[in-house]
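quick one, two chains, predict together pls
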Amino acid sequence: MFREITRIDVPTTLLGGALLIGAKELPKQGFWYKNVTKFAKRFDDSVLPIAVGVVGIVIRQDTLRRMLVLGLMLAIKDAYAEAMKEPFVYATDASTIEIWGFDASKPVHVVIDGTEVAFTTRPATDANGYAKITLPTAMSAGLHTLVVWTEGSKAWAGPAVV
Amino acid sequence: MSIKLSPELLKLAKAIRQANAVHEILSKGELDDSDMRKLLKTIGIRDEHIDAIMEAKAKYEETGDPEPVIDAVAQAFGLPADELKKWVASIDIISAVLSLA
């Protein structure tokens, strides 16, 4: 049986991230602290600011080395957003369901009205935890109860109306 | 009873652990070579890249030219050296602009 942890006590904002790390590298009096969110938007991910920060550490350049903190905050923010992504299921039509936010690249199990669907080839999620699943038998018109889970730790249960 | 953590939560826990470990090292203030190696290791840089960065650091201390350091760091992170150079050069300008905002 799984137990999914859906919440962890981590700040969701960049400033929260700064506080988490301690943010002593961000000068209290300075613009870096006040504008860190604005500044972070210039970066698509954490790699570049971390690399710039490492250059700053090695050549002992303070402004550059502060980028390391910004990069680490972005890494936490991205990992948090990924970890908190809730699974979601939608029945596109009577024989198709789409799923989002499940374990990446894992086999998918589908239970409809208490009976597990037997697939000839079990569907699997892609690297983003998404899958479009064609059911071997279409659902009848009306309300159905779906349980979808991936061989990892994510599961979803809810209704589908056809 | 054991609790199974998803790969995403493990990644988050790793990011937090790394940040805390880096903060602890940076809190020392001035870093010597051994602190610097520890920091580079903490953020996941492989040993051979750490050696190359430290070698570049020695060159920088002799010549005052940061280019070998930027090249070595770009190599370690798999980034194009030109892009990293561009950012290193522009950070001071961006900082100055933000200070006026």
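Chain B touches chain A through 48 residues (CB under 8 Å).
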